[in-house]
Amino acid sequence: MSVIQGKAYWASLINPNTTFDSDGTWSIDVSLDEKNKKIAEADGLAIKNKNDDRGDFVSIKRNVKRKDGNLNSAPEVLDAQKRTMMNTLVGNGSKVNVLYTTYEWKYKGRSGVSADLKKIQVVDLVPYQGDAD
To answer: Is the dihedral of CA 61, 42, 77, 118 positive or negative?
Structure first.
């Protein structure tokens, strides 16, 4: 297991994201400074950069359903004092520590290493500001 620190972007931690998977996926993009980028690279994770506010980042996810059909538990979300956070949406720019494990995958002739999201500690919360209607 590894821990990386950075700023959170596009966090789907309370309600799984169903955009690409109808069963849902808990996910978070974590922007990386040089120290945390080295941790992610050592774990074999793909470092992305879309030339936006995230800079260098990794995407860490956990599917709601396993391949065998059983359900995964939701990742634990904790505050700075390690107390469980309930129903709190994490906004872009929140400072987080993310605990994950890595696993290797193969799919349609491609292979790689991905991270399974275990726990998130929100050290400095930026409240989520949804779209105003």
So the answer is: positive
